[in-house]
Design brief:
six-stranded antiparallel beta sheet, ATP binding, alpha+beta, AAA+_ATPase, transmembrane helix, 3 domains, protease, elongated, 16 strands, Rossmann fold
Length: about 725
């Protein structure tokens, strides 16, 4: 069955590099073929470089779509082949062109949402290439996921269904109790001229008092269940999603702003609050409305029709409001993520900002993002207020209409005065939850935005660390066998056909110009990334069959950009590893040439540090990272520019200790002097292993290495090697 064209939904990108896959997802979704962004992200392998037009074409074809690229003016391409089109936009961006009409070019920007551009503006931003995506007979319908908040929360909180059922049962009991005063009203009014004794009224007074106590007990019990739900669901969801997050692969966090992840976490509370404060009360209100309507129907079907008409008007207004509200909420939350990311970056780089005197520029960047967020928030609130005003008007007019209907029924002889008062009381009682349901549905419309953002995290595949694999034996050789790696599918290789063996107890240095793939090589050895070509072997066993956690737990690693956590120096060195003793901590501090500095501090190793290790100098922080890596006597040590901030004497002490270790050691350095005494030196240029051997041998056998060494000795810039293209 051939898929038919529908209105293109808005799918916003989560990172700066995934505008291409977001645009493709929108184009395919316009034919009711919805693919989660996380799935496309994983298959495209966009990494830090984004997806090319060719990669998008391949993805579309994998989904059963035809994808043809066209060059030419935008209006001519649309007229010739139709829409939707994924088009190259501005400098390095993709958008979807829905159509061109008399109002202009209808564009969906995955970073900003729907917009209409004047043809002249669109022509200036269009980069001349468009991808026409259309379903073939191989394409199948993939409906959009419609999981609600209740089911989402239930997947994390066992037993929640029973608790919700108990709340509804208690609400049903409260509703039954609540309708008895109306029945008593009818009886009292209609019996005033008949009953002469006061005894029945005393009995009724006692009954009302008893019912009030029961109603109080039921309400308190129901509130206790709701409080339990809020506490349990928030804790369970947050723990489960954080557990999932920390198990995601390393590449997920490259290019993913911290602010975006923080805002996604705030969505947990929004979903929780929506379920406990909106969805659950809506279900409770439905119970009340059902019970009240059933009793009203036994007295006056006309009142039931009036209530149904009021509910229909509210439902239609909310239905018309919903799509626009969701679109604005989606864009608002997206801008909130950007604002949060700018704030995190500004606070993290405050020293640099002050040193350069660019505080005003940083503030301006944040203010721009925040003002965009506020504008979207104001537009959404304006829409909310319009709907709220309309619903309030219905709530104002509704009781008067019901009263007029009741008076008409009394005059027509179909209701007694007591029944009319009772019916009006019940109708008013039913109208309140009907209006409350409308107000709640107004907010629930935006829950989908937050669910989608949480699903974008949860849809990401966790890193496969092979827990059932072979335990890592680092007494064996660790080997790169013809390894190539690229951070994006179809992108340039950062490493190309590299073969390198690390023998047990050997010290291997890795040097080369910036951007030659040195840090990438270290990540491959740890299994943080997988090669696109070739293998990484430990004792002849591929890392794909090795328990990676056992490997990493026996490794001591210092990455570029030394940092710490807000804890004591001792806890920073221990890093949560309970088997690391105080003696191990002291030995690690001495090995990192930090023990004397710590001894001069009044609190010693108990000295508390601020966020990211604030309170230490750059060199001290780097030595703290070295101590953390060496604590626990690792079998594999990897230093990535680990001593770049150290003074000469401190660096000499660190390398003196490093030379005495029996562990396998890989030292990545920018300065050749750092590794000149290594057993072997690997010289990387533009992702290729140009030379491998001892320093003195390489000086004689590799002219490029000799030139590299001379440039460092005389302080010249690093030369480029002829015939090699620098890695991106």
């Amino acid at each position: 069955m051939r898929l038919r064209r529908r209105r293109c939904p808005v799918i916003l990108q989560a990172t700066r590099t995934e505008c291409g896959i977001a645009s493709l997802a929108m184009a395919m979704a316009s034919f009711d073929h919805h693919v989660p962004l996380a799935e496309l992200r994983g298959r495209a392998g966009i990494g830090r470089d984004g997806a090319s037009m060719l990669a998008l074409k391949r993805l579309a074809e994998e989904e059963g779509f035809s994808a043809r690229a066209f060059r030419g003016p935008l209006d001519q391409v649309v007229a010739a082949v139709g829409a939707p089109l994924v088009v190259a936009w501005e400098e390095a961006h993709f958008v979807v062109v829905e159509r061109i009409d008399r109002r202009g070019v209808r564009v969906i920007d995955p970073s900003a949402g729907r917009m209409t551009c004047h043809p002249t503006e669109a022509a200036s931003r269009y980069r001349g290439v468009a991808l026409r995506v259309a379903p073939t007979t191989a394409a199948v319908r993939c409906p959009r996921r419609r999981e609600g908040a209740s089911r989402f929360v239930a997947s994390f909180v066992p037993g929640i269904g029973g608790k919700i059922a108990s709340v509804l049962a208690l609400s049903l009991l409260a509703a039954v109790i609540g309708m008895l005063p109306a029945a008593l009203t009818a009886y009292l009014v209609d019996s005033l001229g008949v009953v002469v004794s006061s005894s029945p009224y005393r009995v009724m007074a006692l009954v009302v008092a008893a019912l009030a106590l029961v109603h109080l007990a039921v309400s308190v019990l129901r509130s206790a269940v709701i409080i339990w739900f809020e506490k349990t669901s928030d804790g369970e969801m947050t723990a489960a999603i954080l557990d999932h997050l920390v198990r995601l692969p390393f590449l997920f966090f490259q290019g993913r702003p911290a602010g975006d992840i923080l805002v996604r976490f705030s969505s947990i509370s929004f979903v929780r609050d929506s379920l406990s404060g909106r969805i659950l009360p809506t279900l409770v209100d439905l119970v009340f409305v059902t019970v009240y309507t059933a009793l009203i129907a036994s007295w006056s079907p006309v009142h039931v029709l009036a209530l149904a008409a009021i509910a229909l008007v509210e439902g239609v207004s909310i239905g018309l409001y919903g799509p626009r509200a969701k679109s604005l909420a989606d864009r608002e939350v997206n801008e909130m993520s950007r604002t949060q990311s700018v704030m995190v970056e500004a606070l993290g780089g405050m020293e640099t900002s002050k040193a350069l005197g660019i505080e005003e520029e940083v503030l301006g960047s944040w203010r721009g993002a925040y003002e965009r967020q506020l504008r979207l928030s104001a537009r959404r609130q304006r829409l909310d207020n319009h709907l709220a005003a309309f619903l309030a008007t219905i709530g104002y007019v509704g009781p008067a209409v019901l009263l007029l209907i009741g008076a008409h029924e009394v005059l027509a002889g179909r209701l007694s005065l007591g029944q009319m008062l009772a019916v009006n009381a019940l109708a008013a009682a039913a109208l309140t939850p009907v209006q409350q349901i409308g107000m709640n549905l107004q907010v629930i419309q935006t829950v989908r935005v937050h669910l989608d953002r949480l699903h974008d995290l949860l849809d990401e595949q966790q890193e496969d660390v092979h827990p059932d694999g072979t335990a890592a034996d680092l007494n064996q050789d660790l080997v790169l066998d013809g390894v190539s790696f690229s951070y994006s599918q179809g992108g340039p290789d950062v490493l190309s056909e590299v073969s390198l063996a690390l023998h047990r107890g050997e010290l291997v240095g890795v040097v080369g110009p910036s951007g030659s793939g040195k840090s990438t090589l270290a990540r491959l050895l740890l299994g943080l990334i997988e090669p696109n070509q070739g293998r990484v072997l430990l004792g002849g066993t591929p890392l794909s069959r090795v328990d990676l956690r056992s490997l990493r737990r026996r490794a001591g690693v210092v990455t570029q950009g030394a940092t710490g956590v807000a804890a004591s120096i001792r806890e920073n060195v221990r890093a949560g590893r309970t088997w690391v003793t105080d003696t191990d901590v002291q030995a690690a501090l001495e090995a990192a040439a930090l023990a004397d500095d710590v001894a001069r501090m009044p609190l010693g190793a108990a000295t508390p540090l601020g966020e990211a290790g604030q309170g230490l100098s750059g060199g001290q922080l780097q030595r703290l990272s070295i101590a953390r890596a060496l604590a626990g006597s690792p079998d594999l040590v990897i230093f990535d520019e680990a001593t770049s901030s150290l003074d000469g004497p401190s660096e000499a002490l660190v390398h003196e200790h490093l030379a005495r270790l029996e562990a396998t050691r890989l030292v990545i350095a920018h300065r050749l002097s750092t590794v000149v005494g290594a057993d072997r030196i690997a010289f990387l240029v533009a992702g290729r292993l140009v030379a491998l051997g001892p320093h003195e041998e390489l000086l004689l056998t590799c002219p490029e290495y000799a030139a590299f060494a001379r440039s460092q000795m005389v302080g010249e810039a690093e030369p480029s090697c002829p015939g090699l293209v620098p890695a991106q």
